[in-house]
Write a structure and sequence with these properties.
Blueprint (H helix, E strand, L loop, with lengths): L3 E6 L6 H7 L2 E3 L2 E4 L2 E3 L7 H9 L5 E3 L3 H13 L3 E6 L7 H15 L5 E5 L4 H16 L4 H11 L3 E6 L4 H5 L5 H9 L2 E7 L5 E8 L1 H16 L9 E5 L3 H15 L4 E5 L2 H7 L4 E6 L4
Parallel strand pairs: 1-2, 1-6, 6-7, 11-12
Antiparallel strand pairs: 3-4, 3-5, 8-9, 8-13, 9-10, 11-13
InterPro entries: DegV, DegV_C, DegV_domain_contain
Keywords: Lipid-binding
GO molecular function, one term: lipid binding
């Protein structure tokens, strides 16, 4: 059985230590801040990035670079590997299409090359959890085709929901109207958002107040986990530079589920540019989104 590598993009929000340990190939998404383009080796820390947003400096984002995609895949093919790429939701970025085009070109130019691209229809560590599962299956000796088939069948069971602290950034990204953002902020409305089966970001209700919104995330998770509630799968918490709220959410999850297998990371700039400082979410396995 031919060895295969697993690749993804920087929007998967995997911990750097995990990426290094499991040798995950990363294709960068980019963002522009104050006329400087960041990505790959040119990065701001999460705190630097979110502090700039708090100061009113707004970033713009760009999808993955087709030339970098081709180079990445070509290098793995040259080394004799098959490639399984798990992409950020195609409903939210053109990056998935760029990867599919690049993979097809490399396969056409290299006889015997095999590159499978999966649209995760997911974001952040929801996408990251798909990669974790792929890595675990590879370590169990599964082939690239077996792993890809399992993911395609089960990818809608990787769930993401989150809330934001400031409606302005959702308005800026076209997710809510200006009037909704203004009125909602005045009366402390906090939206609950989910990634749906089409990989789109959609509303799943509102709450009043920050702590209530965090508790609602956990309640919603419990109501959709079904059989997975008893399987002790990893649960992930992602946040836009709000460690105190992330710790509160982690403790709430532990209290409800009595598990310690919780991964916490910051939301990457390419996503955080749209969700803003203070965004926070839960990623988990559920019977439905």
């Amino acid at each position: 059985m031919k060895e295969f590598v697993i690749t993804t993009d920087s929007n998967s929000d995997l911990l750097p230590s995990y990426i290094k340990e499991k040798k995950i190939g990363i294709i960068s998404h980019y963002y522009d801040l104050e006329g400087i383009t960041y990505g790959e080796d040119n990065l701001l820390s999460a705190k630097e990035f979110y502090d700039k947003m708090r100061a009113g400096i707004m970033p713009t984002t760009m999808a993955s670079n087709p030339a970098v995609i081709r180079e990445t895949f070509q290098n793995y093919v040259n080394e004799g590997y098959d490639v399984l790429h798990i992409s950020f939701s195609s409903a939210l970025s053109g990056g998935c299409n760029n990867v599919m085009v690049g993979a097809q070109e490399i396969c056409e130019e290299n006889e015997g090359a095999k590159i499978i691209v999966i649209d995760s229809l997911n974001v952040s560590l929801g996408q990251g959890m798909v990669i974790m599962k792929a890595v675990a299956m590879r370590e169990q000796g599964k082939s690239i085709d077996e792993v890809a088939a399992w993911i395609e069948e089960h990818k809608l069971e990787f769930c993401v929901q989150f809330t934001v602290d400031d409606l302005y950034h959702l308005h800026r990204g076209g997710r809510v109207s200006k009037a909704t953002a203004i009125v909602g902020s005045m009366i402390n409305i906090k939206p609950i958002l989910v990634v749906n089966n089409e990989g789109q970001l959609v509303s799943n209700g509102t709450t009043r107040g920050r702590k209530k919104s965090l508790a609602t995330l956990v309640d919603n998770m419990l109501s959709t986990m079904g059989k997975y509630q008893n399987e002790q799968n990893v649960i992930c918490v992602v946040h836009g530079d709000v460690e105190e709220d992330a710790n509160f959410l982690v403790n709430l999850i532990k209290e409800k589920l009595h598990i310690d297998n919780i991964v916490v990371n910051t939301v990457s700039p390419s996503i955080g540019a749209h969700s803003g400082p203070g965004a926070i979410g839960i990623c988990y396995m559920g019977e439905h989104r």
